[in-house]
Every structure is written in structure tokens, then in C-alpha cells.
Amino acid sequence: MSWIYLVFAGLLEVVWAYSMKQSDGFTRLVPSLITLIAMIASFALLALAMCTLPLGTAYTIWTGIGAIGTFILGTLLLGEPINFMRLLAAFLIIAGLILMKLSER
């Protein structure tokens, strides 16, 4: 169950990061509220996941899901550039997540 909490916590990190961008420096009400609600839910699920998962593993996976998810949303929805270096960076993050998960055994 901890892994499910962790995945949803990571996905909510993507939601709050995107909503924060849309809040325009917390000047727009609805995106600001979505940001705060998603942050609280993301942290709560991360805390639940950390009850049984190692700190380093849980935090790395959580931030990795957030990093890759926001990279994807940024390119798809916000028109942020895609180039070799950014794709390589995303690949290295994914490789790090896989290695972190494999090292847990």
C-alpha cells in the first residue's frame, strides 16, 4: 500500500507544481487553492508512504515522479522546449528512480 501512496503523492506533486505555475504568483484564486490542497494531500500521502518505506527511497521516488511529470506537462501544455539535453536529463532521472527502487531489496 505504501507504494500506491507514494505514486499518488508524486502525481499530486505534479498537480501542485502545475497549479502553482497557473496561479501566477498566487494572484489567481482557483489555481492557488488547487496548489495548496494538492500540496497538503501530496505531503500527507508521502508521510503515509514513509511509515514503511526508507526515507531516501520514498523522497527520491516522490521528487522523481514530480520532476518527470512536470517536465512532461511543461512540454505538452506550456510549450517548453524539448532538446537532447533535457531528454537526457529526464532519462537520467528515470534511471536513478529505477536504481533507487532496485537498491531497496
From TrEMBL:
Keywords: Cell membrane, Membrane, Transmembrane, Transmembrane helix, Transport. GO terms for biological process: xenobiotic detoxification by transmembrane export across the plasma membrane. The keyword Membrane applies. The keyword Electron transport does not apply. It is found in: Cell membrane. Gene3D superfamilies: 1.10.3730.20. It is a multi-pass membrane protein. InterPro entries: EmrE-like, Small_drug/metabolite_transptr, Small_multidrug_res. This is Guanidinium exporter. The lineage of its organism: Bacteria, Pseudomonadati, Bacteroidota, Cytophagia, Cytophagales.
